[in-house]
Amino acid sequence: MLDARPVNLLELHPDFATDPYPAYAALRERGPVHRVTTDGQESFWLVVGHEAARAAYTHPRLSRDWRRYGALATGLPTPTTLENPGNAHMLLADPPDHTRLRRLVSREFTPRRVAALAPGIQILTDRLVDAMLKAPERRGDLVDAVAFPLRLTVICELLGVPDIDREAFRRWSDEVIAPTSGDSARAAHREAVAHLTDLIAAKRTDPGPDLLSALIHTVDDDGDRLSEDELLSTAFLLLIAGHESTVNFLCNGISALFSHPEQLAALRSGPDTLLEGAIEEMLRYDSPVETSTPRIAVEDADICGSVVPAGGVVLIAAADAGRDPARYDRPECFDIRRGGRGHLSFGHGAHFCLGAPLARLEGRIVLRTLLTRLPGLAPDGPPADRLSSLVSRGIRRLPVRW
């Protein structure tokens, strides 16, 4: 059994919120699993290292089903919004329920549907870059100028969400990923669910060619279909969770390129050969998902020789898995020629991110367009307002000039 005394991550590394990697590396030297805390009150079990992370992602005794096993959880409280509708999605389910939900969604969220989005993503990216080029001072924030509006528009068009209020959406997303309080999280969840409930009702009577309309009507070979709450929950998951991680991926990756000018110069000179590798290295080097969403040990769970007690809440450090020297040579070095597939930034196993192909597609189009049309793109100061959340690792502002 592991030492029950929690390690305070902030004491281990005072700048943990902005740079968690030294703390993760220090823990990894001690072993694969640790009981940790950030505030001295709530605690959880953290899995570090690539091998242990892969094992934890597929461990049969670690459950994502908080509705069924939340009463067992110790150290971290049950999520505040769990009692609301909108939580019957695959991210909060284990097999066989997860298998069923993923099968139904995958019938419509196909590679062909994702590939068909490419021309529209290119047009939208060009429009956003056109607006940047018209700015008289030739400087701005890349999050607001490209990353946020692009991802919001793409996911809304995919789902068929018309004219969503951007500020409301940003508030919902922020509260879901990094809640400021239980009341604020519940309010944001209620507002988002109410918006999607009305949208689903409208699409039942007037369906379109979008993914949400398809999910309303999809039926598998056995006659199974998504229930009303499962449909609502899936729309919520795709709209909110997928948005945040892709914005983080784009901005973290571009920031890494800025911090390694020789890599940026190489990519500019050879995008046709280096772009795919650059996308994977951006994901490995500074993962947009810092740790997995919490799992509950429904029984004592042995992870690479370390046993998490039943009821322990487990977070898997995907970001640290990408920096493990046992998996990558010189992992602290950003190298777009590495060929970094095999990282865990999209998860692993049954819960591997369903939106990974869309995120990669957006990354390729955005990065190539910025390199081609803004050859002078450069940082205009350091990244600002790091997202303070163990689950999500992102940048709120990325000042640039061009």
Topology:
Layout: E1 7-8, H1 9-12, H2 21-30, E2 33-37, E3 43-47, H3 50-57, E4 62-63, H4 66-69, H5 97-106, H6 111-115, H7 118-134, E5 139-141, H8 142-159, H9 166-177, H10 182-205, H11 211-217, H12 228-259, H13 261-269, H14 271-285, E6 295-297, E7 301-303, E8 306-308, E9 313-316, H15 318-321, H16 356-373, E10 378-379, E11 384-386, E12 395-397, E13 399-401
Parallel strand pairs: 1-2, 3-9
Antiparallel strand pairs: 2-3, 4-6, 5-13, 6-9, 7-8, 10-13, 11-12
Helix pairs in contact: 7-8, 7-16, 8-12, 9-10, 9-12, 10-12, 12-14, 12-16, 13-14, 14-16
Description:
By secondary structure, the chain is an alpha+beta fold. It is built from 16 helices and 13 strands. It has a six-stranded mixed sheet with strand order 1-2-3-9-6-4. A three-stranded antiparallel sheet has the order 5-13-10. Strands 7-8 form a two-stranded antiparallel ribbon. The longest helix is centred in the middle third of the chain and has 32 residues, at 228-259.
User: How large is the radius of gyration?
Assistant: 21 Å
Strand content: 5-15%
Largest β-sheet summary: 6 strands, mixed
Write down the domain tally.
1
Return the CATH topology.
Answer: Cytochrome p450
Average pLDDT value? 92
Q: Which descriptor suits the 3D outline? A: globular
Widest sheet, order of strands: 1-2-3-9-6-4
Structural class: alpha+beta
| String of helices and strands | EHHEEHEHHHHEHHHHHHHEEEEHHEEEE
Distance between the termini: 55 Å
Contiguous low-pLDDT stretches (5 residues minimum) are none
As a percent range, the share of helical residues equals: 40-55%
